[in-house]
Amino acid sequence: MIAFKVQDMTCGHCVNVITQAVQQADAGAQVHIDLAHHLVTIQPVQLHTAQVQAAIRGAGYTPVVVPIL
Ligand SMILES: [Cu+2]
Fold first, then answer.
1. Strand partners, 42
2. Residue 53: which H helix or E strand, with range?
3. d(CA 69, CA 67)
4. Tens of pLDDT along 7-43?
5. For residue 49, what are the β-bridge partners?
6. Phi and psi at residue 3, to the nearest 5°
7. How far is the CA of 66 from the centre of ligand 1 (A)?
8. How far apart, in whole angstroms, are the C-alpha atoms of residue 4 and residue 7?
């Protein structure tokens, strides 16, 4: 499980773009997004944290790793 704070994820469009970017990089990844808290939680299948982060960054966002609560 990996969690990112994505402060510039601000609407449903961002949610879709980020979800698709992650699943394009890792087809089996489970993505859970809490838009109100700008929080993206991901259970990757193939990727490491840095690769998931790169996929989100590549979609135009700024993910910051946060500890899992
Ligand atoms: Cu948006």
1. 2, 31
2. helix 49-58
3. 6
4. 999 999 999 999 999 999 999 999 999 999 999 999 9
5. none
6. -130, 140
7. 21
8. 9
Instruction: For residue 30, give the DSSP letter.
Output: E
Consecutive H or E run containing 54: helix 49-58
Buried b (16+ CB within 10 A) or exposed e, 49-62: eeebbebbeebebe
Cβ(59)–Cβ(8) under 8 Å? no
Domains, the chain, ranges and CATH?
2-66 (3.30.70.100)
Cα 31 to ligand 1 centroid, rounded to whole Å: 17
pTM attached to this predicted model: 0.94
User: In the beta sheet, which residues pair with residue 65?
Assistant: 4
Task: Give the distance (Å) from ligand 1 centre to CA of residue 9.
Answer: 6
27 vs 22, 42, 66, CA distance in Å? Answer: 8, 12, 23
